[in-house]
């Protein structure tokens, strides 16, 4: 299982059949905001992040693949378990680590250690690398993100962002966003041919289900295929298969207004009339705290049966869209 004291590239992760994850270098970047990605990509600081690739030995070649994108606590046993479950269903999987190369271990107390734009860029950077591997079917690559990773895959599916990174008409076949934060949304919500599925608990204390519902509705109004399943009484990270616990150092702002993003990547402050290319995540998050939306502490974890229900939906989705 993952060891946060060691970078993912230096860990050996072995699935039950004996398959050992193959290290993959992913050339990526650390943009300050969405505007830098879309309108000033030449200014982005570059870095190489870590990934582990698992190819089912008996699967068809080239194989469909799902990129597993962890959340604010980094790569957890549940992410490895999800990757192995999909692997056991004949789907290649790749666990992505955005934290190690940036010397970050957790963002629960401070989500501004690197931008949400960087998290989304990492997903598409991994897509570019994996789509060029001979054993992978470039037309059947999906991404499954959890919490902050869920936000990343939703942005990676948004054409305004994806077109700038991987080119028009290219990108992920589908994304599954598990309990994502939809506090940042592009005004142009089109997702093209990428199908979106969201799984979330209605008792989530980290991210607003209503905000995510609105996000999915915007995608549908823009012509996309987006569905959302709410699990009654489920908490954040209800797929972890660990008891519900309070994360005291967490900083959350459940009721904060949405920050919208223009086509050129400039963010629109909730109190402003025009987008600002210089605006960064910290600006709007400090606003949310000062406006009284923030608080400390939030729960994560599973009730009996939560994790199994998540896995069932997850497997059914990926088997259908990557068949």
Protein architecture, described:
The protein has helices at 34-39, 77-88, 116-131, 148-157, 159-166, 209-221, 281-290, 306-321; strands spanning 22-29, 46-54, 63-69, 92-97, 136-146, 174-178, 184-186, 195-201, 226-231, 245-252, 259-261, 267-268, 295-300. The two termini are 29 Å apart. Helix 3 (116-131) crosses helix 4. It is α/β, with parallel strands linked by helices and 323 residues long. The strands form three sheets. An eight-stranded mixed sheet has the order 1-2-4-3-5-6-8-9, with helices on both faces.
Question: SSE string, helix = H, strand = E?
Answer: EHEEHEHEHHEEEHEEEEHEH
| Main β-sheet description | 8 strands, mixed
Please give the radius of gyration in angstroms: 18 Å
Estimate the mean pLDDT confidence: 96
Structural class: alpha/beta
Features:
323 residues, alpha/beta, eight-stranded mixed sheet, three-stranded mixed sheet, 8 helices
Quick summary of this structure?
Helix content is 28%, strand content 25%. With 323 residues, the chain is α/β, with parallel strands linked by helices.
């Amino acid at each position: 299982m993952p060891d946060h004291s060691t970078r993912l590239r230096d860990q050996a992760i072995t699935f039950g059949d004996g398959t050992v994850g193959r290290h993959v270098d992913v050339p990526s970047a650390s943009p300050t905001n969405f505007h830098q990605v879309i309108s000033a990509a030449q200014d982005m600081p570059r870095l190489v992040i870590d990934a582990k690739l698992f190819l089912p030995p008996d699967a068809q070649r080239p194989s469909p693949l799902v990129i597993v994108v962890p959340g604010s606590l980094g790569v957890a046993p549940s992410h490895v378990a999800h990757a192995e479950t999909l692997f056991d269903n004949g789907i290649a999987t790749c666990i992505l680590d955005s934290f190690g190369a940036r010397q970050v271990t957790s963002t629960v107390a401070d989500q501004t250690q690197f931008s949400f734009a960087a998290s989304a860029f990492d997903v598409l950077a991994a897509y570019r690398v994996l789509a060029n591997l001979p054993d992978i079917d470039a037309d059947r690559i999906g991404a499954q993100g959890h919490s902050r990773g869920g936000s990343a895959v939703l942005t990676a599916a948004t054409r305004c962002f994806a077109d700038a990174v991987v080119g028009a008409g290219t990108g992920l076949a589908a994304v599954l966003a598990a309990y994502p934060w939809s506090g940042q949304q592009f005004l142009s919500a089109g997702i093209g041919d990428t199908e979106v599925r969201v799984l979330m608990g209605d008792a989530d204390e980290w991210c607003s289900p209503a905000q995510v519902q609105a996000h999915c509705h915007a995608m549908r109004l823009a012509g996309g295929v987006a569905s959302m399943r709410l699990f009654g009484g489920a908490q954040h990270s209800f797929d972890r298969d660990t008891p519900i616990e309070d994360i005291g150092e967490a900083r959350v702002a459940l009721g904060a207004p949405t920050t919208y993003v223009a086509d050129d990547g400039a963010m629109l402050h909730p109190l402003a009339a025009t987008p600002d290319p210089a605006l960064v995540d910290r600006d709007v998050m400090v606003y949310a705290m000062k406006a009284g939306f923030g608080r400390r502490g939030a729960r994560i974890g599973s009730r009996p049966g939560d994790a199994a229900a998540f896995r069932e939906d997850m497997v059914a989705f990926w088997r259908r869209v990557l068949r």
